[in-house]
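We read letters as residues; the fold follows as tokens. A sample entry reads:
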Amino acid sequence: MGFADGEIQKVKVADPYIDIHSGPGEGYPIFHVIERGELIEVIQRRTSWFKIRYNNKIEGWVNIEQMEKTLTPEDEGIQFKQITQEDFWQRQWEVGVMGGEFGGAKQFSMYGAYLINQGLAAELGYAESIGSASSSELIKVGLLMQPFSDWRVSPYFYLGTGIISVSPNATIIAPTDKNDQFSNVAIGIRAYLSRKVIFRFEIADYIRFSANSDIDDNEDITEWKAGFAVFF
């Protein structure tokens, strides 16, 4: 038997018990347990989590691993539709890791994003690069605009700002770390691969503003990076 999205169906608990979470994620607490043989209603799906109703009064969320072990009221097996591109369009959160180069230095970065709507996301990121002369850390926030968000492979534009901390690697007289503000723009491509995995490639241009108002030594830095992300 298959499960049709949007259709309320009853299933029977086949495991000794299933855990009911207060929300669609492992971080939400378990507030109830339903024992083997009990019937529950499946009323909604969000990626790999199902909203269920028990005994006409208790509602909560069950992960797909436990739902795949339930049965129909007639004790038949159930098949659940896997994560699709439609789930990708409807995602709310995304986290990823990327690697590349920042001003010629090797760089590693990570980010988290919240989708305001299908074509606009707010991002918070952290990056660290190591070069021969200096190392740097970046903390940035920005907006990502994806005008063709319904494409499996689509371009995007990014506008952000943040703080960069530069630490010299070489031993020089009175070495000091520098903390400066920067702004950056980027263009990129993201591709939905399968299940919950996204590939992302990006080229960006940074302007690092000098903290010394008497010297106009703003620095232009080019970055490229690629990596993978998961959504939920």
Q: What stands out?
A: The mean pLDDT is 86. The helical segments are 64-67, 85-89. The two ends are 26 Å apart (CA to CA).
